[in-house]
């Protein structure tokens, strides 16, 4: 499981990613805890109003039972599971320093052809990257998805499932990864 760090920066500087950035604010974040980039974001800590899920109930019945997003218990925590085509999750983050940031994902799917994309306000940051094939559900691999250019301030990052159903997401790390 990827470790996370969160903080509540006191600045509310407007932000953008090259063009069309999605500004956000502390109040939009899950429990008003905003990861300060570079940081790891746990998949299940998506913004309360920042998701689209194809079912009306949390099929895994774990962690956040007040949401329709399917969250399952895994070793050492939780993950978002049973993600289907077109579903998405949004995360409010705080970027202190403008720059290019590595994006590392911890995910898995039994079978090939599953993809994610990362965007911000309908602007694609990373078009499409493969979810790694694993032997069993609940197993994850950590892999590089690419780089994103971020400007300072509170921002909203969206992760969207591609055209093929069934992927699990454990975490997203933005910044240098070791």
Share of residues in strands: 35-45%
Structural class by SSE content:
mainly beta
Poorly predicted regions are: 1-20
Radius of gyration, rounded? Answer: 15 Å
Order of helices and strands: EEEEEEEEEEEE
Distance between the termini: 13 Å
Count of discrete alpha- or pi-helical segments spanning 4 or more residues? 0
* Average predicted confidence as pLDDT: 86
Shape: globular
Largest sheet: 6 strands, mixed
Any chance you could write out the topology, listing elements then pairs?
Blueprint: E1 36-37, E2 39-42, E3 51-52, E4 71-74, E5 77-83, E6 88-95, E7 99-108, E8 115-120, E9 123-130, E10 141-150, E11 153-161, E12 167-174
Parallel strand pairs: 1-6
Antiparallel strand pairs: 2-12, 3-6, 4-5, 5-12, 6-11, 7-10, 7-12, 8-9, 8-11
General description of the model:
- The chain has 178 residues and is mostly beta strands.
- The protein contains no helices and twelve strands.
- It has strands at residues 36-37, 39-42, 51-52, 71-74, 77-83, 88-95, 99-108, 115-120, 123-130, 141-150, 153-161, 167-174.
- The strands form two sheets. Strands 1, 3, 6, 8, 9 and 11 form a six-stranded mixed beta sheet that branches.
- A hairpin with a 2-residue loop joins strand 8 and strand 9.
- The protein is globular and about 40 Å long.
- Mean pLDDT is 86; it is low at 1-20.
List keywords for this structure.
mainly beta; 6-stranded mixed beta sheet; 6-stranded antiparallel beta sheet
Brief overview:
The chain is mostly beta strands and 178 residues long. It is 0% helix and 44% strand. Strands 1, 3, 6, 8, 9 and 11 form a 6-stranded mixed β-sheet that branches. Strands 2, 4, 5, 7, 10 and 12 form a 6-stranded antiparallel β-sheet that branches.
